Amino acid sequence: MLLEMTLRRIGSLDAGAMEKAQRRLDSLIKPPGSLGVLEEMAVRLAGITGDPKPQVRNKTVIVMAGDHGVVAEGVSVAPQQVTAQMLPAFVGGVAGIGVLARHAGARLVVVDVGVAVPVEFPGVLQRKVRAGTGNIAVGPAMSREEAVRALETGIEVAQEEIERGAGLLAVGDMGIGNTTPSSAILAAFGGYTAEEVAGRGTMVNDQVLKRKIGAIARALQVNRPDPQDALDVLSKVGGLEIAGLAGVILGAAAGRVPVLIDGFITTAAALVAYKLQPKTREFMIASHLSEEQGHRLMLEQLNLTPVIHMKMRLGEGTGAALTMHLVEAATRIIREMASFDEAGVSALEEDKILK
C-alpha cells in the first residue's frame, strides 16, 4: 500500500548537515544569530535536504479542492457551487493564490479530489475520490478506504511534482464549508469543545456561527472519532481535500522536500499527517498565523511557530506562497553571504560583544 510505504520512508533530519549549516552561519559577517528566523530556517532546510548549503530550485503550490456535506447544516454563507466556480480562477491565475504563486515564481497545481460536481475545466487535475463528503453532523464524512485513497492521491501528486524537480512545496485548499471539518479534527485530536475550536470562517455571522458550533458538537457526538487513530478521525469528521493535503505533506516528507503549511485548513491536514507519522512535523514550515480561531491551537499541537503574521484568512495557499520568498532568502543568506575570512573582515570577539 502506498500510504504504508510512504510512512515508512519518512526519516529524521540530517544532524550532520544541520551542524555544518550552523557553523557556516556563525562564520558569516554578522553577529551570530542576528538574522533570527532566517538562520533557523536555513538550518532546518539543511536538515531536511541533507545539504549544508541548501538552495531553492523549483517551487510548487498544490491546491486540493473538495466539497462538504455539512454545508446542509447552514454552516457557511457561501453556496457550495462556489468551490467549482473558483477553480477556473485558480488555474487562470486571477485568484489570490494565482497572483501570489506567480509572484513567487511557483508552479500552481490545482487538484479536484472531491468536488461535488464534475469539473472539466482545462488545467484542473482530475483525481476525484468521490463527489463530496457526507454530512459529518449525521454520520461519517467518508469511509476509511476513501480516506486512504484521498491520502494516496495527495502522495502521488507530491511525488509527481518532486519528480518534475520541485524543491519546495506549499499546500493550499478550496472547499466551501471546510472550516467546520477542520475544527472538528482539531477538537477530536486536542480534546477541545466545539466552542473552543469554531471560528467564523468566511463572513459568518452570529447565527451561522451558532449553527456551526452545533454541527461540530453533533459530529463529535455521532461519530465518536478515536484521537488515537488518525484515519478514524479523518474519515469520520474530515474532508477529501484535507486528506489530499495530508497526503501531499506525507509525500513531501518522504521525498525530503520542505513543505510550507498555509492556514487553518492545511494545518488540519498537517495535524493528520503528524498523527499518522510524527516525524513528518520536521519537514513542515508554518507560513503564517491565520485569523481563524483555532489556528493557534493547531500550531501549538504541532509545536510549530509561524513565520509571518499578516492577519490573513483567505486560505488557498496564499500565506504559504508569500512565505516562499523568505525561505528562498534564508537559502541565499547561507549560500551567498561571505564569511569573515572570505571578506577579509576581522571576526567579532564574543567577549567584546558582551561588553
Summarize the structure.
Its EC number is 2.4.2.21. The protein has 355 residues and is an alpha/beta fold. Helix content is 50%, strand content 10%.
- Poorly predicted runs are 350-355
Looking at how many chains there are and whether they match, the oligomeric state comes to single chain
CATH names the topology of the largest domain as Rossmann fold
Whole-number mean pLDDT = 95
Q: DSSP helix count?
A: 16
> What is the strand tally?
6
Walk me through the structure.
- This protein is of the alpha/beta class and 355 residues long.
- It folds into two domains: 2-53 and 334-354, Orthogonal Bundle (5,6-Dimethylbenzimidazole Phosphoribosyltransferase, Chain: A, domain 1); 58-326, 3-Layer(aba) Sandwich (Rossmann fold), CATH 3.40.50.10210.
- It is 50% helix and 10% strand.
- The protein has helices spanning 2-9, 15-27, 37-49, 82-91, 96-104, 144-163, 179-190, 194-197, 206-223, 230-237, 240-254, 264-276, 295-302, 318-336, 340-343, 350-354; strands spanning 58-66, 107-114, 124-126, 166-174, 259-261, 284-286.
- It has a six-stranded parallel β-sheet with strand order 3-2-1-4-5-6, sandwiched between helices.
- The longest helix has 20 residues, at 144-163.
- It is globular and about 70 Å long.
- One of its GO terms (biological process) is cobalamin biosynthetic process.
- This is Nicotinate-nucleotide--dimethylbenzimidazole phosphoribosyltransferase.
- GO terms for molecular function: nicotinate-nucleotide-dimethylbenzimidazole phosphoribosyltransferase activity.
